[in-house]
Known about the structure:
The complex is a heterodimer.
Chain A: E1 4-8, H1 9-23, E2 29-30, H2 41-50, E3 55-56, H3 62-73, E4 80-85, H4 93-106, E5 115-120, H5 136-140, E6 146-148, H6 153-165, E7 169-174, E8 182-186, E9 199-202, E10 207-210, H7 215-228, E11 233-237, E12 240-242, H8 246-256, E13 259-266, H9 271-283, E14 292-296, H10 305-311, H11 315-325
Parallel strand pairs in A: 2-3, 2-4, 4-5, 5-7, 6-7, 10-11, 10-13, 13-14
Antiparallel strand pairs in A: 1-8, 6-12, 9-11
Chain B: H1 7-31, H2 46-53, E1 61-63, H3 69-74, H4 79-86, H5 120-134, E2 140-145, H6 152-164, E3 168-177, H7 199-202, E4 208-212, H8 216-231, E5 237-244, H9 277-283, H10 285-295, H11 301-324
Parallel strand pairs in B: 1-2, 2-3, 3-5, 4-5
Helix pairs in contact in B: 1-2, 1-10, 1-11, 2-8, 4-11, 5-6
Amino acid sequence: MEDTREMLYAEALVGALRHQLATDDRVHIMGLYFLGLTPHRQMVAELRDEYLDRFYYPPIAELGYVGTAIGAAMAGLRPIVDIATASFMFEAFPQIINEAANTYYMSGGRTAVPMIFHFNHGVRGGGAAQHSHSPQAMLWNTPGLEIMAPSTPRDVKGLVKTAAASDNPTAWVDHVRLFDTSGPVPDDEDFAIPFGVADIKRAGSDVTLFASSWLVQRALEAAELLEQQGIDAEVVDPRTLSPLDEEAIIESVAKTGRLVVVDECHRRCGVGAEIMAVVTENAFGDLRAAPIRVTTADVPVPFSPPLEEHIEPTTDKIVAAALEVTGH
Amino acid sequence: MTPDLPEDQLVDLLRRMLVIRRFEESLIKLAGDFDIGHFHVYIGQESTGVPALAQLQEGDLAFTTHRNHGHLLARGTDPAAMVAEILGKATGTNNGKGGTLHIASPEHGFPTTSAVTGGCTPLATGAAFAFSRRKVDRVSVCLFGDGALEEGSYHESINIAALEALPVIYLCENNSLEALGQKANEYPSSTMAAAPLTDLAASFKVPTITVDGTDTGAVHGAMAEAIDRARSGGGPTFVEALTVRWPGNRPLWPQLATGVTDLTYAWDEGAIPQDHSKWHGAQDGVLRYTRELVTAGLVTTGDVLALDGEVSTQIEDAVQFALDSPYPDPESAFEGVYA
């Protein structure tokens, strides 16, 4: 039995950064908005004060400073660069997509880009169209990037450890709504979660709920509500999209025969669309009903709270989809 | 003028320039027989890249652009592996994964070539950031044409370099002088309201030097000053080298518009043909440097022709090596996406 301590996601995140700074002097951190504008950001400020010469607070120039981090990764550092709100990542796309993701392959394996891009994605409440993006599907359409999406304090610790050891550029898909969640975190400093290994966050036999990042929490909430109606839902969290543990998803569907894919990307060509493709290509015979996607609608994210709630993948919508796919 | 260097090093600079010139000329001929995609040659800029990059030391890094061949060769990258890469062969510098646009040679200080205009400016700045943070005595050189100044990445990068006093040299090879540009429906030239281009560095309080890019000694001196500033903690420098666009670079696809370079033009003015007499007589930096060395008595015309013969043989061998090399196994396309 491993020793664990209960803590907030935000604490586990800062702890993971602190561990990397303490154990690898090649790690330098750019940007300070890992915890968004939440009160928890004070923990990042304290960490900066502990490691002043390892932090860099850049100009408002995502293209410039993210590219600077990429160049630094080619010259001996292992930068962890924070892009704050995911929507700002588009300012840096030329460097992320065209340089970081391509360099190892197009150099014939001669130059690696060992670094992490952190950003907070998704609907955070009142973010409107320009602060609510979930760009993970766009990133996933880019060979060369690893993509991790922790959903618990335990996972953020273990995944950061693996990302920091990786020689590949890794996108760290994060969500401000996770910061106040809590859970047990292993004390072991060497605790790491390998990439490409999904986690069954809740075992069940009637329906598979696929979800990642913050939506794992909603899927778990939906599973509790479904249980009250006699439906036993399994929640599959891939933990990393690239690489993807296809086998775990297929195995779960083979067991349940029914699939609801929960995804905060827009519907068209979202993460959910890819999961549907993987399952229908590989486990069509196991499906006992057409799978259903619960995603953000194909509209820019609106500001007004009732509009926003109407287009995002809420717990109620997950429950409704699970009832439909199980024939209730 | 000739750089302030010992004689053997002066001749070595000439040798490197000739490697580039003969490499690019061979490539243009080769492109008639092979579909190597769009490519860009460095003819006319040898007298900038060679003296600028010859001064780098082991561990220094340079980040170049789509017009990268000359920079890589100036630092000693194997021409055979480069031609092989340009032909997509397994023996290429990048095992055929990159082609002309992405030649990498980390052991010569080129981690990657970004062929997107403005792609290299943050990367070079980042390498300097790493050197600064690692407290190592190294410099980073950012090589780009005047067109890259139109991209926002340049402005964001030099701001960071200036604020952090990073050891980086922004070497802008302005090859739009005498370029006819889009008006003539030829290969586009730069489109920039700011003039002179050094204003785009001076506004960030970065020291600037403007130099005649066909003057090997002047380029050498300017880069020596910039590198010294970077190594001594003085931060970035912006060097603008004014080069003349070679007439063969005016069409979309390079053509040997001025013929294969005849080095006797360097000392036999009467041999220069009427067509492109300005190019051969004044604007070609390789001929100019050769002329300077011969006039100063540092080399004989016989030395020059002998050196050129050696270089030409080396390039012929490089081309033959590339032609004889196998293509990569198609399955290797699936390898090396991740480290």
